[in-house]
Specification:
Layout: E1 2-7, E2 16-21, E3 30-40, H1 42-49, E4 58-59, E5 63-71, E6 83-87, E7 97-101, E8 106-107, H2 114-134, E9 142-145, H3 151-162, E10 166-171, H4 174-181, E11 187-190, H5 196-203, E12 209-214, H6 223-226, E13 228-236, H7 250-254, E14 259-262, H8 272-287, E15 295-300, H9 304-312, E16 319-323
Parallel strand pairs: 9-10, 9-12, 10-11, 12-13, 13-14, 15-16
Antiparallel strand pairs: 1-2, 1-4, 3-5, 3-7, 3-16, 5-6, 6-8
Helix pairs in contact: 2-3, 2-8
Organism: Hansschlegelia plantiphila
Keywords: NADP, Oxidoreductase
GO molecular function, one term: mRNA 3'-UTR AU-rich region binding
Length: 324
């Protein structure tokens, strides 16, 4: 019998229950995997609280790694025994075993561990599309990345620096600021003690940034817009502090004919070729040593509620994983 973290009603971390589940045999197009590591992400909190509604009861989690134990009819993308990882597919990662559509799985290269894959797939593929497709970052660009010491932030800032960009990061408190400085940031702003808009203007000589990457949401708005050059891009991809308030579209004109987007990993990996290309780019940059993936916290799967409390309390740096 497999074990899983289930949500029967939405709410705080206390609603997470550790239960026996029956996963059955893989159907057509499916694979069964025995999981070895599971990624914890803020989107899991959004599902748990009901911000992103799901039909209850459900098993939480969007990211994991493991070994294929069985395949269903018609599956050719993976085989029994393959080490695989996934991110952004159907929910159900917070489990010792699970079924998943086989076309959502990617094979893990020999130079990447299961823990690294589970810690990096969702965050790393998010960094890939933000830096390589939402806005194609290069040596001529100055970028601002909020939450630079977080899981996505650490990967993205290293990657952006590798691409030659000047990276400005924000982080909360001396320890996170010091960490971000080791992860590709040329400048780090402590948002707890400094006004990040004023500091960006100082750092850029009043010119502003080409792009602001924002997973913070409410607390960083509208300041993020004030950090941009005319015709700059504000890329919102999360809301850890709460939703961005509704605003008139004319605000973008007032602040410099700005562009704005609210992105989702799903829309960048919705086809099999896109998924494989995105994951391959991520694994390549990890294997090259240009990006290292720090796993700040590890929790037993049964302690998923504590992992959520740590994440929401901003008591984590880098990636957090659950171990079945």
């Amino acid at each position: 019998m497999a074990k899983a973290i289930r949500v029967h009603q939405t709410g705080g971390a206390e609603v997470l229950t550790f239960e026996d589940v029956e996963i059955g045999q893989p159907g057509k197009g499916e694979a069964a995997i025995k999981q070895t590591a599971i990624g914890v992400n803020f989107i899991d909190v959004y599902h748990r609280t009901g911000l992103y509604p799901q039909q209850t009861p459900f098993t939480l989690g969007s990211e994991g790694a493991g070994v294929v134990t069985a395949i269903g009819e018609g599956v050719t993308d993976v085989a029994v025994g393959d080490r695989v990882a996934y991110a952004g597919g159907p929910l159900g990662a917070y489990a010792t075993e699970r079924l998943i559509p086989a076309d959502k799985l990617v094979k893990i290269p020999s130079g990447v561990s299961d823990e690294t894959a589970a810690a990096a797939m969702l965050k790393g593929m998010t960094a890939q599309y933000l830096l390589r497709r939402t806005f194609k970052v290069g040596p001529e660009h100055v970028i601002l990345f909020h939450a630079a010491a977080g899981g996505v932030g650490q990967i993205a800032c290293q990657w952006a620096a590798h691409l030659g960009a000047t990276v400005i990061g924000t982080a909360g408190g001396p320890e996170k600021v010091a960490l971000a400085k080791t992860k590709g940031c040329a400048h780090v702003i402590d948002y707890k003690t400094e006004n990040f808009v004023e500091r960006v203007r100082e750092i850029t000589g009043g010119k502003g940034c080409d792009v602001v990457y924002d997973s913070v949401g409410k607390d960083a708005f509208p300041g993020s817009l004030d950090c941009l050059k005319p015709r700059g891009l504000w890329a919102s991809f999360g809301q850890s502090s709460g939703s961005v308030p509704d605003f008139p579209i004319g605000l973008l004109s007032q602040k410099g004919s700005l562009y704005a987007t609210r992105t989702s990993l799903f829309h960048y990996t919705s086809t099999r070729p896109e998924l494989l290309a995105t994951a391959a780019d991520l694994f390549d940059v990890i294997a090259s040593g240009a990006v290292t993936v720090d796993i700040g916290r590890r929790f037993p799967l049964a302690e998923a509620a504590e992992a959520h409390r740590a994440l929401e309390g901003r008591r984590t740096t880098g990636s957090t994983i659950l171990l079945p």
